[in-house]
Structure prediction request, 358 residues.
Amino acid sequence: MNTQNQVTTDTDTFSDYHDLELRCNTHLKETTSGKPSIVIDDHWDFGRLALIDKFVRKILTNIDAGYIETTGSTGHITWAPQRWIEPYRKAITAIISPEMHERFDIRNVFVDLFLNACDELKILDWSSHVLGHYGAKREANALAFNELIATIRRLSKQRPYPSKIWHAENDHRNNFDSCVAFIDRLFSDWSRYAVVRVDLEYLKEHASDIFTLDARTDMARLLNRMRHGKRVKGECRERDLFADAAGYVWKLEYGEDRLLHFHCFFFFKKKNGAQAGYWAQEIGKYWVEVITKGRGFFHNCNYRWYGDPEEGIGEVNRNDTLKREKLDNAVYYLFKPEQCLPIRKSDPRWRTFGKGML
Prediction:
């Protein structure tokens, strides 16, 4: 992986992300001459990855062209963009650049499919590519965009993509099933839990500097401190928070606004379910102050949800069939497939969710 990518000025709708990446991945490196040089580390273009992921998924879920040829009453031919491509057509073409293949080195089949389509069509940048098509600029742009869509659809049917796409769209169901079995096991051991849900995130000024490895390290530290709270005999913050913890489920996700963040469920044996909001608040504060050293942020999901019969958190009893079903539905939210998690191909494989008993 090249760690000295050529950086160009970007003026598309994701320029804010681009600027953040430059600021957080630029450092000085000492050289043998004694003069420091500026090194630009590889980093994911967060917003662009999510956009490509969504764009390719959208292409594969319909058979429509992006632009349709229409003839007006005067006989004038125009190419009209279809509604389904409106969120993508300008931003997607602005993404394409010669550096794209290096900077988008992630383990995501939809991004990989997009890159291979651009490679097959020999698209280095969109403006130059459009010049190679017949017609005026608008017609050429429409034909080129339709060609890109058609190429993505054709490649998606060729090996190894069908299998990879199937796993990308179905593995989340297997993960969900394993979590339901885990929760069933918890309730076979204990009849009532205070179920606490909290989303653990990072402040916006730090989020763009958080890699998946950093997020994993923070979660591992939190789980270790939870186990410490179960073992320690003397009074301490960890004991107060986690002595009654029986199990947990966490899921690492990525969003265009929050970037990397965790959705978490914690199961407590002897805590009052009516105080789930309080304990979520305390866990969130612990995440911010101890685990992330001020870089973190959190969202307490319990104050809004507790007491609502449509949600499965707060106090949940073993024999409360309706509440147990709502808990399963709440956990299912964690395993929705519509996301792009930036894990590099060069990184070792690891799970993006975890569960365990304490």
